[in-house]
Design goal:
The chain has 15 helices and twelve strands. With about 325 residues, it is an alpha/beta fold. The N terminus is likely disordered.
C-alpha cells in the first residue's frame, strides 16, 4: 500500500510530487512557521507556501523574515524559531556551542557578488585601495571575503577602505548614493542595486563573482554552500516526519523556482517586501539548490576548514559531528 500511494502521488506531478512515503504518513501540523532572510533561498520558501506545495506538511504555513544575524541568534537562543534558513557557518557554530541546531539541507551554492560601476575592478587584487561596503561584520560575507583576500596577500582592514553596514540594503544604498566605490552583497540585493542604478541613469554590474573566486582560491569547483535550512533539535526530535516532508517538498519547489522564476518571484514579492521583477532577475544568480545536508557534507567541511584556518572559533572550535548533517 505504501508503494501504491507513492506511485499515485508521483503521477499527480506538481510541487508535492517528491514527498516520500514515510513523510506522507505524518499528519499535517496545525501551524508551521518558517523563518528566512531577505535572500535568494527565501524565494523558494515563499514559492513553496504560495503554490500549496506544503499543504501536506501543515494546515497553515507562515513565513517570517529575520533581518540580521543577531535577530536570528536571538530567536534561536530564546527557542522561538524552529525551522529557519541560516548561513551554514552560523549553523555549525551554534551546533558546536550546544544550541542544538541541525542542518537539513543546503539551499544555495553561493550568492555573493562584488557590485561596482560597469567596468569596475574585475579581480580581488584590483580592489586594493578602493572603498567597499560589507554587510554583517564578523558574519558570513565578511568572513568569506577576508579569507579570499588573504589568499591574494591582501588584508581587508589594511588594503581596502571598508564600511560595514547592518544589512545588504544599506550597502547598496551607499553604492547608489556614490558614497562607496564597491559593495559586497548577496542576491537579491545585488540585482536590486543593478536595477535601481539603471533607473537613475547609472550602470552597475556584478564585477566579481565570489563563487568563482572561491573555486580559484581553493582549487575546487565554484560551489560555496553558503546557506541552508536549519532545524532546532527539539523540533526535529518531536517531528522528524514533518522535517522530512518539508525537505522533500523543497526539492520540488527549488526546481520549480529555477524553471519558472517569474512565478516564484510573484509568490515571494509580498513576503520579502521586494519588487517581483528584481526577485525574478535574481534567481539565475542565486545558485538555488536543495541538497540534503548529509550529501553536501564534503563541500561543507571543505568550506568550514578553509574559513577556520585563521580562527577555529568561526565554526565553534571544530568541524561539526556527523549528527549535525541530516
Amino acid at each position: 500500500m505504501h508503494q501504491l500511494t507513492r506511485r499515485a502521488t508521483l503521477q499527480l506531478g506538481g510541487l508535492s510530487a517528491l514527498i516520500t512515503g514515510r513523510a506522507a504518513m505524518a499528519a499535517p501540523l496545525a501551524v508551521l512557521t518558517l523563518w528566512g532572510p531577505p535572500a535568494g533561498p527565501s524565494i523558494v520558501l515563499a514559492h513553496a507556501i504560495e503554490s500549496g506545495a506544503l499543504r501536506h506538511v501543515a494546515d497553515n504555513v507562515r513565513f517570517r523574515v529575520w533581518r540580521n544575524p543577531d535577530e536570528l541568534r536571538a530567536g534561536l537562543t530564546s527557542k522561538t524559531m524552529d525551522l529557519f534558513i541560516l548561513p551554514t557557518q552560523v549553523a555549525a557554530n551554534l551546533h558546536n556551542r550546544g544550541l542544538g541546531v541541525r542542518l537539513v539541507n543546503v539551499m544555495t551554492n553561493g550568492l555573493l557578488y562584488v557590485v561596482a560601476p560597469h567596468g569596475g575592478p574585475p579581480t580581488l587584487p584590483a580592489l586594493k585601495g578602493r572603498s567597499i561596503a560589507i554587510p554583517y561584520r564578523n558574519d558570513m560575507p565578511d568572513l568569506l571575503f577576508r579569507r579570499l583576500l588573504a589568499a591574494h596577500g591582501l588584508s581587508l582592514d589594511a588594503d581596502l577602505q571598508v564600511q560595514f553596514t547592518g544589512s545588504p540594503i544599506e550597502a547598496l544604498q551607499l553604492l547608489l548614493a556614490g558614497r562607496i566605490e564597491t559593495a559586497l552583497i548577496p542576491e537579491p540585493a545585488a540585482t536590486a542595486a543593478i536595477v535601481r542604478s539603471a533607473a537613475s541613469g547609472k550602470t552597475l554590474s556584478r564585477a566579481i563573482d565570489i563563487q568563482q573566486v572561491w573555486g580559484e582560491v581553493t582549487g575546487r569547483s565554484a560551489v560555496l554552500p553558503q546557506a541552508g535550512l536549519g532545524v532546532s533539535a527539539s523540533f526535529y526530535e518531536q517531528h522528524p516526519q514533518t522535517v522530512a516532508a518539508l525537505r522533500d517538498a523543497l526539492i520540488a519547489a527549488t526546481a520549480s523556482a529555477v524553471a519558472n522564476p517569474a512565478r516564484a518571484a510573484s509568490d515571494a514579492a509580498a513576503m520579502l517586501e521586494m519588487p517581483w521583477p528584481v526577485l525574478e532577475q535574481s534567481v539565475p544568480y542565486s545558485n538555488l539548490v536543495a541538497t540534503r545536508a548529509a550529501e553536501a557534507r564534503p563541500a561543507l567541511e571543505d568550506m568550514f576548514r578553509t574559513l577556520a584556518e585563521s580562527d577555529p572559533r568561526i565554526i565553534g572550535g571544530s568541524l561539526p559531528p556527523a549528527d549535525f548533517y541530516l
